[in-house]
Amino acid sequence: MASTSDIRNGMCINFNSDIYKVVEFLHVKPGKGAAFVRTKIKSVTTGRVLENTFPAGAKLDEVRVEYREYQYLYLEGEMFTFMNNETFEQISVASNIINAPDFLEEGMNVKIAVRAEDEMPLTCELPSTVIVEVTYAEPGIKGDTATNTLRPSTVSTGAKVMIPLFVNVGDKIKVNTETGAYMERVK
Predict the structure, then answer these.
(1) Which helix (H) or strand (E) holds 29?
(2) 153 and 141 in contact (C-beta within 8 Å)?
(3) 29-58 pLDDT, tens digit each
(4) 141 or 80, greater pLDDT
(5) Which end of the chain has fewer beta carbons closer than 10 Å to its terminal beta carbon, N or C?
(6) What distance in Å separates the CA atoms of residue 95 and residue 86, rounded to the nearest whole number?
């Protein structure tokens, strides 16, 4: 059991019969009344974000989570199969716990958060940016270069990304996996 004084970003707790990760917190000591901790917590299973206030000294049920490096192998039906880089054990993960399944490529290394008690995978996080190749792009309209015009494209993983007019089919681009936004062209 942990108390509110132990709260830190990234800490996982059992709350309302679900596992939540602390996104941000603030200890508040008002001039009148008891102190409290204002938190923003995100459900590990559903991704829903809640704002909650805990009174000072409240007991929290902390969940022990381990982050392990895994390599993506293949997709079978709705399940993604990963291999532990140290023990070579394979696990299957549903797509709803992966932060950006559209950008997964075979051989890519990811971090999977595993509950230490029962080895249950909680989240799968891709690197913050990935480099992919543009396989299809809508043709640009001639004379439409005065503004930052974007056009739809498809990349090697099958994801849809909006790209600038100067990026061509076959170019490699860097994409932010959290937002799915184009960042830059890679040489």
Answers:
(1) none
(2) no
(3) 998 899 999 999 988 877 789 999 999 989
(4) 80
(5) C
(6) 23
